[in-house]
Write a structure and sequence with these properties.
three-stranded antiparallel β-sheet, 9% strand, mainly alpha, single chain, 279 residues, elongated
C-alpha cells in the first residue's frame, strides 16, 4: 500500500496506520518524523531526509562562523574580492614577465583593502575602550553614592559633629567595600572580625569606640551624657540632670534631626531613638 502524504479523512487509511497522521487545518498529514522510521517501504526517503538535515546544519554552522568572522568588517568590505586580489597579486609575482602596471594596480588595491581593515580594527578598539570607560565611570559613581552616601547618613544618625563629617568620612571610607548580594543588587558593607556588617552598624560601633567617641557631639557636663551637646548652654531634655518629657515632645515635633542628636548624646540606643521619633 502507498502512504499518501495528505488525506481528507482518516477513514481512507487502514486502522493500524491512522496513528501515523496528524490533523492540521481540517486535513490529515503523514507524520514524517515518526513514520519514516516505522515504515521500511520508504526507508530511502528517511535516509535522504536525514542527509538533507545534516547538510542544512553544516551550511548553517558555516554561515554562523562566517558572520562571526566578518562581524567587525566595514559594511561594503567584500572578503571574496579581497581574497581574489591577494591571490592574483601573489600569482602575478611569480611571473617573470608580469606587467608592472597591473602588479602596481593590484598592490594598491590590496593596500586599500588592508587599510580599511586596520581602520575597522582601530574603530573596534576605540569603541571597546569607550565602553570600558563608560562602565568604569558608572561603577565609580555607584560606588561613591553607596559608600559616601551611606557613611554620611550613618555619621549624622550616630551623632558625629558636623565639623568632623568630612574628616570622619575620609577616615572610614577605606573600610567600606561594595559587593553584589544574593539579590543581584550592590550593597556597601564593612568586613569585621564577626563578618560583613552594613555601614549603619559599623558606624554605630565605631562611634562608641575609643577612636570614634572623640568625633561624636559631646554633652555638657559628665561625658556624653551631659545636659548639653558641645554648643554652649543648650539644654538636653533626655539626660538625667534636665530630663523633661514635655520638652522632648516639643523638639521631636519641631526638629527630628535635633531630637536624634540630643538622644544620641544622652546615650539612647538606635532602636530607642527610632522608636521615639516614629511615635
Amino acid at each position: 500500500m502507498t502512504l499518501r502524504a495528505v488525506i481528507e479523512k482518516l477513514e481512507e487509511v487502514p486502522e493500524a496506520l491512522k496513528a501515523e497522521y496528524i490533523e492540521k487545518d481540517g486535513k490529515f498529514y503523514l507524520d514524517l518524523d515518526n513514520s519514516l522510521n516505522v515504515h521500511t517501504a520508504i526507508a530511502p526517503l528517511a535516509t535522504a531526509l536525514a542527509t538533507v538535515k545534516r547538510e542544512k546544519k553544516t551550511i548553517q554552522d558555516k554561515l554562523t562562523a562566517l558572520e562571526t568572522k566578518t562581524a567587525g568588517l566595514p559594511d561594503d568590505f567584500d572578503p571574496a574580492k579581497y581574497a581574489d586580489t591577494v591571490a592574483e597579486l601573489e600569482a602575478l609575482k611569480t611571473d617573470p614577465n608580469r606587467d608592472k602596471d597591473t602588479e602596481a594596480k593590484l598592490q594598491k588595491e590590496r593596500e586599500r583593502y588592508e587599510q580599511r581593515l586596520r581602520d575597522a580594527e582601530a574603530k573596534r578598539v576605540a569603541d571597546l575602550k569607550a565602553k570600558d570607560t563608560e562602565i568604569n565611570e558608572r561603577d565609580t559613581l555607584i560606588h561613591e553614592t553607596l559608600v559616601d552616601g551611606g557613611l554620611t547618613e550613618a555619621l549624622v544618625k550616630h551623632g558625629v559633629a558636623s565639623q568632623f563629617m568630612g574628616a570622619t568620612r575620609a577616615l572610614l571610607r577605606g573600610a567600606v567595600k561594595v559587593q553584589k548580594g544574593d539579590d543581584g543588587k550592590r550593597h556597601a558593607v564593612v568586613t569585621t572580625d564577626l563578618g560583613d556588617v552594613d555601614i549603619d552598624h559599623f558606624v554605630e560601633n565605631w562611634s562608641k569606640s575609643d577612636d570614634g567617641k572623640h568625633f561624636v557631639v559631646q554633652g555638657k557636663g559628665s561625658g556624653s551624657h551631659g545636659s548639653g551637646n558641645g554648643r554652649g548652654s543648650e539644654i538636653n531634655p533626655w539626660v538625667k540632670e534636665s530630663f523633661n518629657l514635655t520638652e522632648q515632645g516639643r523638639i521631636i515635633k519641631s526638629d527630628k534631626d535635633k531630637a536624634r542628636r540630643l538622644m544620641k548624646t544622652a546615650g539612647r540606643t538606635s532602636h530607642e531613638i527610632d522608636s521615639a521619633l516614629a511615635s
